[in-house]
């Protein structure tokens, strides 16, 4: 399983703060993103950053390991 | 002593943070701090509370990186960063930054740099709670 | 509540000063402070204490002018300035500046401007007390 | 009488924090200064600023009133 987390405005648009995506060998970050974007288009309109296991991920062709933690994030507004 | 970098629900004390900062060195000639507060008014609406959501682990890791970077970049003797999460009332404190250096200019510059970078780089989101409804804040770049 | 501009022998509390600053307005989004401390080391000599002499009336009047000028120049919601006189031990606090504004940049800029101007314009003199003798500090322009 | 005050390093070089200069009608700031400079040359080497009644005085030809408070000051080093 790949654990996908959402926070703040993205979580609100998804209607959940966490979803599970089934793992398969060789699954790419962009495939997880595409699959979720299809079911939650409004949420992904505001997604600007992606993190994998707590680190910024810029390369969407990154292959994911089983049990990865993926987060799709909107622009930060802390402080 | 409390950690130099923290995310917490409860309020913080400037005296306690500046006291902790100063224990590190008696060569600290200048200490600059920045405290961000919840304003009761935003874009024409009266704000009663602000609610914060954070990607806790990554936010804390980014704040720790910021502290280390600022210490190196401005030759600080020490620095501290505290950010609250949960619900904060209008007028309450949200974020605290402190930078201590031998002289005043680097302390003040580091403090400004830290709050600017924190807003860009730390995964925390704020929602304004008003009588007309709640709204997630969209940062103006 | 204590005056916003003071010259005093006793130490001050950041919590108390920032608390007093914040009572003025709930529209204060950013508060910047600067605290100057007595360093234990100066130009190769170990400093045990710093002694301050002030032309009290004029110093207070100049500090009050500085506060009013900063509030106008940076559109602050409030500002406070406290300077100690008498003898201050190494590591102790000497001067405190706080500036509160709707947003962070003017608060931080005002704080920097205020401490720079204070050093130029306020008739206070410091003497470093060391094991090798006492010496009045000559400011480097 | 004109009250003349000294602070910090100037007071140390004068050896006093206050001296009185007799008032006479029409006495100018520069005359008070010249008189004191003659008796305390080392102190006046470091004098940079002059205040009359708590205000900076730049014009040394200022006539002084009786009971004026004059201060000869070195560069400030507060903060």
UniProtKB/TrEMBL annotation, chains A, D:
Superkingdom: Bacteria
Pfam family, one: ThiS
Signal peptide: none
CDD domains: Ubl_MoaD (cd00754)
Name listed for the protein in its UniProt record: ThiamineS protein
Organism from which the protein derives: Candidatus Gallionella acididurans
């Amino acid at each position: 399983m790949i654990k996908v987390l959402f926070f703040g405005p993205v979580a609100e648009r998804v209607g959940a703060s966490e979803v599970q995506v089934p793992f398969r060998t060789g699954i790419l970050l962009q495939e997880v993103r595409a699959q979720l974007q299809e079911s939650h288009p409004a949420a992904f309109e505001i997604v600007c950053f992606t993190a994998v296991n707590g680190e910024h991920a810029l390369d969407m062709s990154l292959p994911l390991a089983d049990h990865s933690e993926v987060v799709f994030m909107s622009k930060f507004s802390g402080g | 002593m409390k950690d130099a970098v923290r995310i917490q629900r409860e309020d913080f004390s400037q005296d306690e943070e500046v006291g902790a900062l100063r224990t590190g060195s008696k060569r600290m000639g200048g200490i600059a701090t920045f405290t961000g507060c919840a304003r009761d008014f935003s874009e024409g609406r009266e704000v009663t509370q602000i609610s914060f959501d954070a990607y806790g682990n990554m936010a804390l890791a980014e704040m720790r990186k910021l502290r280390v970077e600022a210490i190196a970049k401005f030759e600080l003797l020490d620095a501290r960063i505290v950010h609250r999460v949960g619900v904060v009332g209008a007028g309450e404190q949200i974020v605290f930054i402190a930078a201590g250096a031998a002289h005043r200019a680097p302390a003040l510059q580091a403090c400004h740099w830290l709050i600017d970078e924190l807003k860009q780089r730390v995964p925390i989101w704020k929602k304004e709670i008003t009588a007309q409804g709640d709204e997630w804040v969209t940062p103006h770049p």
